Amino acid sequence: xxxxxxxxxxxxxxxxxxxxxxxxxxxxxxxxxxxxxxxxxxxxxxxxxxxxxxxxxxxxxxxxxxxxxxxxxxxxxxxxxxxxxxxxxxxxxxxxxxxxxxxxxxxxxxxxxxxxxxxxxxxxxxxxxxxxxxxxxxxxxxxxxxxxxxxxxxxxxxxxxxxxxxxxxxxxxxxxxxxxxxxxxxxxxxxxxxxxxxxxxxxxxxxxxxxxxxxxxxxxxxxxxxxxxxxxxxxxxxxxxxxxxxxxxxxxxxxxxxxxxxxxxxxxxxxxxxxxxxxxxxxxxxxxxxxxxxxxxxxxxxxxxxxxxxxxxxxxxxxxxxxxxxxxxxxxxxxxxxxxxxxxxxxxxxxxxxxxxxx
Length: 359
Description:
Blueprint lengths: L5 H10 L23 H12 L7 E8 L5 H14 L5 E6 L2 E6 L9 E3 L5 H17 L10 E9 L2 E9 L5 H19 L13 H11 L2 H14 L31 H13 L4 H17 L3 E8 L16 E8 L6 H16 L6
Parallel strand pairs: 4-5
Antiparallel strand pairs: 1-6, 2-3, 5-6, 7-8
């Protein structure tokens, strides 16, 4: 620890202090009262009010299954997971301009099945693509629901495609992993003629939403606000000469670019991170900031990065929308080495994570 940078030591000492949130347990709340949205849900509900027809926040996936499917066991697995997690039975109602959660009762889940076995392979794939595209682009009605849709396409006795789509306001990337894990366990149990192997959930997402509203106020709210007021003071617009002009009206149009890092380069990045006590993410973020600085000629660089938002152990098994987007702002100093930049970016990230709850 003596070899750590002084600012890292100071951060760790602050982090060891008991958090105010640690003294407030997340407990089940009365479902008969008005149930508020979490801050994360409030953001998406607001955007939906601006454009109710948008599909920008659809989470859609297609899963190809190359073995026989027990269709009733699959339907029962969906039914159990929907009844197990209240968030899948939740709608969002507008009362005098204020949004509230409304939780529906457990019910039978219907799994539409489309039999495409009589079509030739080419037409089958065209129909699968059409169904998948329609599911991904069809918006959800937040007020009336449902906010989860499923459809099973049968191509052959041992070839299926399962389509699953949900609105982001009830789920996130972490939740999808939990969803798939629970579905796998439930399907296996029902296929074998057994019962659900999953233990009951002690709390639900709405309990977290109420807890968050009660906790993030007063001194804690002011503490986090104070940090971000400084961090976001007069953030400059990134001006890259080769970029396209910024549109007058902001939109969600754009491109997603995926690339791969080979094993040797990945190990080199990890090794540099270990030498600097930084994760590969911090090393790559430092490199990205340096690249943006070189192209723009600016030394004040801000990058938005999502964070899981699950700062409590009780929230780990829950399905819901917890994520937040943090602005990681760095001021690159002339003449500093890349290793010094990594140190700086790491500290910025750690401080931001310590103030991640502010919406």
